[in-house]
Every structure is written in structure tokens, then in C-alpha cells.
């Protein structure tokens, strides 16, 4: 089964493709099929992921899966949330993973509470108007490190510590990270939904 991934993030594509492989599902990056991105005007992960999935399905005629993920920092009242990818641009930085990490460390410096959560919401639609989207959520409680640690992964991985492991995501091998990450959890939940709905019906 071919499914378009409603994302232009190659790191995300590689992570999800490796996890979906046992299902015999082939993920295709939307950037390889069309130009443009869906509007994401909403304040919640699930609404934005649904918007992206419907947009990709409409553009390609294929089933689509979209991920909306973000960092929810306790000291910031749950922000940056859905605005995680553009977090640093609100503070005068150009958009990049590295600048996002720099900005987070600067803004969190005065705060004693370094607790946060990484949340990943995956939404799948069979068609643009699918009335029964598949929704899978993965959430991991983390603590923000005071400096970067590790060289794997992407995004905020160098400063996201899993407290019970004492390691950042960037210090983990990819397979180990997939076992413990928010996206790993949402992907396993989505795989089960795909297996019992779309794939069992095909």
C-alpha cells in the first residue's frame, strides 16, 4: 500500500518508513509529488495534522498520513506546542533546528522547572473527505537539559532527556529512540490502526 506522508521533513520520513516497513506500507514524501504545504491555522496538534492529511490526499489521490508534533514546556504554559518548528523565529532567529535549541535554552535559563512533554499526533485519511480519520497520539515526559548532548536525531533531540534513562534522544541509537520516543509511540498506535482497518479491508 502506498501512502503519502504529508511532510517535507526527510528525517521524519526516514523514521516513519523504517517503523512502517513490517506492514508492507510504502511512504512517499509529499515534496516528491507536489509543491506547497497545507494551512495549519489551528491551536491543537490533531486539527493541524488532519488539515495536512486532507490536503495531501486531495493533491495526490492517495491515502495520506500527517504528523503534527511539538514540545510542550511546563514553564511556558504548554508552549511552543503547535508552533514548535517556528519557535525561534519569534525571538529574532532564522528558522532552524539549531536555533530552536539555542532559543529554548536561553528562554528556559531563568526557570527551575525544566519539565516538558514531546507530543506526536498522527492522523490518517483514505481520501480528502474521509469521515473516519485514524488518530494516534504518543506522549513522552522529558526534562530539558542545560546544554546539548549527543549527535543523533534532529529537532530538539540534543536537549530532551528521558528522566528514567538519563539520556537525551540524541544520545540514543535510532532503533532505541524509536522504542521510547513520542513518535515511536504514536507510530506503533497508528500501525495497529492501519493493520485493523485499512489493511484488513484491502
SSE layout:
Layout lengths: L1 E4 L4 H11 L5 E4 L15 H16 L3 E10 L23 H12 L6 E11 L8 E11 L15 E3 L4 E2 L5 H7 L1 H15 L1 H4 L1
Parallel strand pairs: 1-2, 1-3
Antiparallel strand pairs: 3-4, 4-5, 5-6, 6-7
Structure notes:
This protein is of the alpha/beta class and 202 residues long. It has a single domain (2-201), classed as Maf protein (Alpha-Beta Complex), CATH 3.90.950. It is 32% helix and 22% strand. It has six helices and seven strands; from the N terminus they run E-H-E-H-E-H-E-E-E-E-H-H-H. The chain has helices spanning 10-20, 45-60, 97-108, 174-180, 182-196, 198-201, and strands spanning 2-5, 26-29, 64-73, 115-125, 134-144, 160-162, 167-168. It has a seven-stranded mixed β-sheet. Helix 4 (174-180) packs across helix 5. The longest helix is centred in the N-terminal third of the chain and has 16 residues, at 45-60. The model has no long low-confidence stretch (mean pLDDT 93).
What is the structure about, briefly put?
It contains 6 helices and 7 strands. It has helices spanning 10-20, 45-60, 97-108, 174-180, 182-196, 198-201, and strands at residues 2-5, 26-29, 64-73, 115-125, 134-144, 160-162, 167-168.
Relevant terms:
202 residues; alpha/beta; Maf protein; 7-stranded mixed beta sheet; 7 strands; globular; RdgB/HAM1; nucleotide-binding; metal-binding; EC 3.6.1.66
Amino acid at each position: 500500500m502506498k501512502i503519502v506522508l504529508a511532510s517535507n521533513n526527510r528525517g521524519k520520513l526516514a523514521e516513519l518508513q523504517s517503523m512502517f516497513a513490517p506492514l508492507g506500507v510504502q511512504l512517499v514524501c509529499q515534496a516528491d509529488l507536489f509543491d506547497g504545504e497545507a494551512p495549519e491555522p489551528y491551536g491543537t496538534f490533531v486539527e493541524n495534522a488532519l488539515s495536512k492529511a486532507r490536503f495531501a490526499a486531495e493533491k495526490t489521490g492517495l491515502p495520506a498520513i500527517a504528523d503534527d508534533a511539538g514540545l510542550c514546556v511546563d514553564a511556558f504554559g504548554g508552549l511552543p506546542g503547535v508552533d514548535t518548528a517556528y519557535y525561534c523565529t519569534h525571538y529574532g532567529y532564522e528558522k532552524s533546528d539549531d536555533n530552536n535549541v539555542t532559543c529554548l535554552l536561553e528562554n528556559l535559563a531563568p526557570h527551575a522547572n525544566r519539565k516538558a512533554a514531546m507530543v506526536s499526533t498522527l492522523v490518517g485519511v483514505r481520501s480528502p473527505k474521509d469521515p473516519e480519520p485514524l488518530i494516534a497520539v504518543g506522549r513522552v515526559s522529558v526534562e530539558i537539559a542545560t546544554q546539548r548532548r549527543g549527535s543523533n536525531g534532529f529537532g530538539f533531540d540534543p536537549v530532551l532527556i528521558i528522566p528514567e534513562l538519563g539520556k537525551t534522544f540524541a544520545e540514543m541509537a535510532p532503533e532505541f529512540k524509536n522504542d521510547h520516543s513520542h513518535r515511536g509511540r504514536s507510530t506503533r498506535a497508528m500501525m495497529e490502526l492501519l493493520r485493523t482497518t485499512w489493511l484488513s479491508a484491502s
